[in-house]
Every structure is written in structure tokens, then in C-alpha cells.
Automatic annotation (TrEMBL):
Organismal lineage: Eukaryota, Fungi, Dikarya, Basidiomycota, Agaricomycotina
Pfam hit, one: NUP
Protein name per its UniProtKB record: Purine nucleoside permease
InterPro entries: Nucleoside_phosphorylase_sf (IPR035994), Pur_nuclsid_perm (IPR009486)
GO MF, one example: catalytic activity
GO aspect biological process, one term: transmembrane transport
UniProt GO cellular component terms: endoplasmic reticulum
Length: 480
């Protein structure tokens, strides 16, 4: 921190918890800068030209600065002992890092909030909740089980709308809101894992959001846990009015020439498979929750009762289910698209996956966490994808796809509430069972990872053997 800037900032200070921030310059005085004032970390000399003695006004100013310095000196020792992590702002920027001490940031004057600081020790959460937009995130606040707003940490590169990660005071449970759709999810989770603020090597990630739902498999209000996440929109596409007459859909896998052929042009993000042993434990925890339901939601379900194929959608109330999720940036509605993506999920997972929910982020999030695992920054076996069903992906009989999309969605509020009701059981189950079960990890009994076999093992999905996939990956690498 520049000496002159330190001096000027001391003219006016604002005491915030255990640190100080200048209203005049926006400069933050955290434990590191207070230590500087005490002379415990390095000596700071605030020098003034001898010409100052010819200017009475400036002499008075120097006197004020020295008085302010002595005033805060008495509190500095206490501040240094606390080593707090302070709240933060989207306009923070790092200005100084002291080895083994505190990171010091600037803050825009109008915010008057302290930016994230640390002691050189990374936060090491046991559970990191990943939400996608504000209502999903806010449902976790002001709950009796734990306080996610106790520590608020600015992470450079997070969404401008959600620039902070939130944590409990002990750092055991944290949360991030990524922003919606694949680009936001990938950008935010990348910023998180590469921020060097957190140690995520033993962290369990709980993706906790709402989703559309296939009435052939589940219903609104349900809480679902996925084994597979399938990027169903990563395909060729014809406008349905121009597709070949014998094609049931305008979607064709990349490299294929018909909708029922496995893609031969593979990017690697088409399918992810998660730890089923961990999913089983998460489902067990979630089943202890009493889920939210409403009369309006029950009435909506009853409209699907006339079609026997929609029996799960017409069920009497919400439940916890094991079924898979489809990722698409396009927020779609309609029977034809719903059936097309059912078939895509079945095809891409070699008949194992069951398309249940549709959302806009999960494959992007999982690709980042897979790469972080390869970089030894995270553990892909510790990921849970939980989606609660807010609306049906297709209409009931007698209603158009447009009416289904633009009409009332009575499942929305119960689905948001059920994120918390079921999710908190999962979070508490992991934290309370940490030493007995979760600290050492839950061993995967199935293949986990991507279509390339990047994490080792043999994928149980794909166009052929894992050997051919590895050969393709090796061949591609020769030209990079």
C-alpha cells in the first residue's frame, strides 16, 4: 500500500468489525495494514517534504494524520489476533499480498464494505452448495441449521450479479451462485476452483437447483438425484419444418447422419457419470425431509392423469427419485422436443440413462470439476446433482406447447422450497457423518467421469470401447 495513500486514508476512517476502511479514498485497513502501523511486519515511513513547514494548513493536516494513527494503534493488536475474513464487493481488486499474512484489497468508496481477506490459510469446506440464480441461493439464507452469510468472500471471476461465495463462520459449508446457462456456470465454477482461496480437494459439491420435468418419469415438486448428466442439445439441428420426412426430430448427433446413430464427432462433454454410491447416501438423507406441496400443484398434476404414459406426473405428491438430467441452453417446451431428448439420453448413455429433468448448467459445471480433478484441485467422486422439479417439459392432453411454457407454473415455489428441505438433509448428513464416512471419501462402485475416460476406468457409455476413445483423444492431442 502506498505510504502517501496510507496517510491520506487516515483522515477519515470507518470502523467495520475488526478492520478499518477510509471513506475518503476507499482504502481498506485490514489486519495486515494495521500490523504495518504497529511495525510488526514492516516499517512504514510516511514522509513529508520539508516545504510542508512553510504551509500551516498542511502542518495541521500532518498533526491530524499522526493523531489518527495513534488512535487506531491501540486497537490494532486486537485486530491482528482475530484474523477475520471480511465481507466483500464486486469492485474489489488486490493490491498487496504479504507472505503468511493478510491479502489487502481496494474498495470503491461508495460501497463502504470490506473485501475478502485471509491469513494465508485456505478455506476448506466440507460441502459447497452450487446454485444457479437468486431464488435458489436465497432459500438457504436465514435458516435455523446454519448461517451461510457469516462469511462472505469475493472471488474474482464470479458472476457480476453474484460476486461473493458465502460460508458459515467455521468455513465448513459454503455456497456459490453461478448465474444461469452453461457459459455462466462454467465461468463461475472455473473462477471458484482456480481462485486459490479454497482448498476443495475433499469438498463435496451439491448442485442444488430447479428443473423442468418429464411427466413419464417424475412430477412437479419431486427431488431428483442424477447418475448421468447428458448435454442433449450438443447436436446438429434442422428446423422441424425442414427436416427429412423420415426423421422423428430435427436433432441429429454430431458426425451421424440420422437421429438414432451415436455421435462420431465427440467433444467430451456429452455425458458425465457420477458416483452412484454417493448418490444412494444422498437420497437416503433427502428421504428424511418432509417436502413442500400445494393445492395448486396437486391440481396441475391431476391434469396429466388422463394419459397413462404420464402416470408418474399425475402422482399424488412429491417424492425423492433417482433419475437423470439433461442439459440444454435452450429452454424448450413440447412433446416432440421432450421425446427427442428422451431418445438422446438413452442413446448417449447406451440405454442406461433415464431422462427425467431438464436444466441449463450441469454439464458445464461438471466439465470444470472434472478438469479441476485432473489438476488435483477437486474430487469428481464427491459430486451430487440434485434437481427439484418446477414445471413439466411438455403439456398435458388438450393444451399446446406454448400454453405449457407461458401458462401458470404452480410447481415453481414448492420446487424452490424443496431445494432447502431436501438439500439441508444432505448437507447435514455429510457434515455430521464426516469423520465416520465422508472425510475419507465414498468409494465409487461404478465408472465416474466423461466419455474419454479422463479420470481412468472404462466408460460404460460411448460409441465403442474406451480404447478407441483414448486413441481418438491421443490422435487429437498430436495436432494441438
Amino acid at each position: 500500500m502506498r505510504d502517501a495513500e496510507e496517510g491520506w486514508a487516515l483522515q477519515k476512517k470507518l470502523k467495520v468489525q475488526d478492520g478499518y476502511i477510509s471513506r475518503f479514498t476507499g482504502t481498506i485497513y485490514t489486519t495486515s495494514s494495521l500490523a504495518v502501523l504497529l511495525g510488526t511486519e514492516r516499517k512504514t515511513n510516511f514522509t513529508v517534504s520539508p516545504l510542508i513547514y512553510f504551509f500551516p494548513i498542511l502542518r495541521i493536516l500532518c498533526f491530524v494524520i499522526e493523531k489518527e494513527r495513534r488512535t487506531i494503534k491501540g486497537d490494532a493488536e486486537k485486530v491482528l489476533k482475530s484474523r477475520r475474513t471480511f465481507t466483500s464487493s464486486s469492485v474489489c481488486s488486490e493490491t498487496e499480498v504479504q507472505d503468511g499474512s493478510v491479502t489487502v484489497y481496494h474498495l470503491h468508496p461508495e460501497h463502504h464494505r470490506l473485501c475478502a481477506t485471509g491469513t494465508g490459510e485456505k478455506l476448506k469446506p466440507k460441502v459447497f452448495i452450487i446454485d444457479m440464480f437468486k431464488p435458489e441461493g436465497a432459500i438457504w439464507y436465514n435458516i435455523p441449521e446454519f448461517d451461510l452469510l457469516a462469511r462472505n468472500v469475493t472471488v474474482p471471476g464470479l458472476s457480476p450479479l453474484f460476486p461473493e461465495a458465502h460460508c458459515t463462520q467455521d468455513g465448513s459449508i459454503c455456497q456459490v451462485i453461478t448465474g444461469e446457462a452453461e457459459i455462466n456456470a462454467a465461468s463461475s465454477i472455473s473462477a471458484l476452483v482456480y481462485s486459490n482461496i479454497f482448498d476443495l480437494t475433499t469438498t463435496y459439491f451439491l448442485v442444488a437447483g430447479i428443473a423442468g420435468v418429464n411427466p413419464k418419469v417424475a412430477t412437479i415438486g419431486d427431488v431428483t438425484f442424477a447418475r448421468f448428466a447428458v448435454q442433449v442439445a450438443l447436436q446438429y439441428e434442422f428446423d422441424a419444418r425442414e427436416k427429412p420426412a423420415d426423421f422423428p426430430t430435427g436433432y441429429v448427433p454430431q458426425g451421424a447422419v440420422a437421429p438414432d446413430q451415436y455421435p462420431t464427432s465427440i467433444y467430451g462433454t456429452e455425458v458425465f457419470e457420477l458416483n452412484t454410491a454417493l448418490r444412494t447416501l444422498a437420497v437416503g438423507f433427502a428421504k428424511n425431509a418432509t417436502l413442500n406441496d400445494t393445492t395448486a400443484t396437486q391440481e396441475m398434476r391431476s391434469l396429466y392423469a388422463n394419459n397413462s404414459a404420464f402416470a408418474p406426473g399425475a402422482s399424488s405428491g412429491p417424492s425423492v427419485r433417482e433419475c437423470d438430467t439433461a442439459t440444454s441452453d435452450v429452454y424448450f417446451s413440447g412433446t416432440l422436443l421432450g421425446e427427442a431428448f428422451e431418445n438422446t439420453t438413452t442413446l448417449f448413455t447406451n440405454g442406461t440413462g433415464v431422462y427425467c429433468t431438464t436444466q441449463q448448467e450441469d454439464n458445464a459445471t461438471l466439465e470444470v470439476l472434472l478438469r479441476a480433478t485432473l489438476a488435483k484441485l477437486a474430487d469428481f467422486s464427491r459430486i451430487i446433482v440434485m434437481r427439484t422439479a418446477s414445471d413439466f417439459d411438455r403439456p398435458h392432453d388438450g393444451v399446446s406447447a406454448a400454453q405449457n411454457l407461458f401458462g401458470d407454473a404452480p410447481g415453481y415455489h414448492p420446487s424452490v422450497e424443496n431445494i432447502y428441505l431436501a438439500g439441508v438433509r444432505v448437507v447435514e448428513g455429510i457434515v455430521n457423518g464426516w469423520s465416520q464416512t465422508f472425510e475419507q471419501g465414498v468409494k465409487a462402485e461404478n465408472y465416474i467421469g466423461d466419455i474419454f475416460g479422463s479420470l481412468g476406468g472404462v466408460p460404460d457409455f460411448g460409441p465403442g470401447s474406451s480404447t478407441s476413445l483414448r486413441k481418438r483423444r491421443t490422435k487429437n492431442a498430436q495436432f494441438t
